[in-house]
Write a structure and sequence with these properties.
The complex is a heterodimer.
Chain A (H helix, E strand, L loop, with lengths): L9 H31 L11 H31 L3
Helix pairs in contact in A: 1-2
Chain B lengths: L10 H17 L4 H24 L7 H21 L3 H4 L4 H32 L7 H31 L6 H15 L1 H10 L6 H26 L6 H30 L13
Helix pairs in contact in B: 1-2, 1-10, 2-3, 2-10, 3-5, 5-7, 5-8, 6-7, 6-8, 6-9, 8-9, 9-10
The chains are: A mainly alpha, B mainly alpha.
Chain lengths: 85, 277
């Protein structure tokens, strides 16, 4: 990833990278942006580690829809592990 | 199956359809109906198995479980209808009763297909990702409806005319035409979802479902145009059209296998997730 493919925020980019395995890079980034705005009222470039639990909660319905409850929890757990939470 | 190998599922429908074409050309016109029947039923069995495999990879209550179950139920009901064509089975019922049972199975199967297609078409919205401008979205959906009516409009008109003239035997055909019209129109939003998921493992179930939907459209269009052009009696035309049904069924089977693989995998490719630089 580089240039326009990143949000400029390492946390947002790492979450997007994990989501992109399932959703593809474009939708992975779009999902982080959409749900950051919905859950936090701020863009992904402002994400901090403290925002991650709220963002995970916001991502849950979307992930459950596409990959089911069990795999959704695996993905969210992987995101938490990658971010050291 | 590892996520990166999901693309190999793409070959299965083409191999199945190619095998059908080779065997159909080899046996000649005498046994063509038998070969078509075997491929038709085995294709439906494969597609139903794929749908049920995908459905039961999800947990009860999961949105996509319902979508796959309704799609699979359509195929199972059509298989049940085909079982009634067997003389030993169909002979149990009086002719009038058999017509009603077969008609009911076709109507319910088509209703199930429409519900399944509707759930699939709405997945993107249900997921909360429907943030795109409405213009292009509705343009694609309008195109889907137009393409669907182009294929099914004429048979729908003919069968509905028979029904309105008092021919109750046309009920299952009208039901089937309506089901096809709605299901085909809903291929467009499924395509939209597949395009949005390009680059991810979820691309494969959605792309294969889209391919299956397009092959069903080509199958119906093939019969419609062959009747208009009066070439529907040509065995080569029949083989070409039936190969579309073989493709449609096996694309759906492959989509189910891909969906199951994505849902049951351990972590979406594990170490492929790289931290951004």
């Amino acid at each position: 990833m580089g240039g326009a493919d990143t949000s400029g925020n390492a946390i947002a980019d790492r979450i997007a990278a994990r989501l992109s395995l399932y959703l593809g890079p474009h939708t992975g980034r779009a999902a982080v942006k959409t749900f950051a705005l919905k859950a936090l009222g701020r863009g992904p470039e402002t994400l901090t580690l403290g925002d991650v639990p709220a963002l995970q909660q916001a991502l849950r319905p979307m992930l459950r829809t596409f990959v089911g409850r069990a795999q959704c929890e695996v993905v969210l757990q992987q995101i938490a592990q990658e971010l050291g939470l | 199956m590892k996520p990166r190998r999901l693309g190999s599922l793409l070959w299965f429908p083409f191999a199945f359809a190619a095998l059908f074409v080779v065997v159909a050309l080899a046996v000649g016109t005498g046994s063509l109906s038998t070969v078509v029947r075997v491929v038709n039923e085995s294709g439906k069995v494969l597609a139903a198995a794929g749908c049920l495999g995908a459905a039961y990879a999800f947990e009860p209550g999961d949105y996509m479980r319902r979508a796959w179950l309704y799609t699979g139920a359509c195929l199972l009901l059509l298989l049940a209808r085909d079982v009634t064509i067997i003389p030993v089975v169909g002979g149990v019922l009086a002719a009038g009763q058999l017509t009603i049972v077969q008609g009911a199975l076709v109507v319910v199967a088509n209703a199930s297909s429409v519900v399944g297609a509707w759930l699939l078409a709405r997945a993107w919205t249900v997921a909360g990702l429907d943030e795109a401008p409405a213009g292009p979205r509705w343009a694609l959906r309008g195109g889907g409806v137009a393409l669907s009516l182009l294929v099914t409009g004429w048979p729908l008109w003919v069968d509905a005319s028979k029904l309105f003239a008092g021919d109750l035997a046309a009920i299952p055909w009208v039901g089937s035409d309506l089901g096809d019209t709605l299901t085909f129109a809903l291929v467009a939003p499924v395509l939209q979802t597949a395009l949005a998921l390009r680059g991810g493992t979820l691309l494969w179930p959605w792309a294969l479902l889209t391919a299956g939907g397009f092959c069903w459209i080509l199958y119906d269009a093939g019969w419609g145009f062959s009747e208009i052009l009066r070439v529907d009696g040509d065995p080569r035309v029949r083989i070409a059209i039936e190969s579309m049904r073989a493709l449609a069924c096996t694309f759906i089977a492959a989509a189910g296998a891909a969906q199951r693989s994505v849902v049951l995998q351990d972590g979406g490719g594990g170490d492929r997730a790289k931290a951004p630089a």
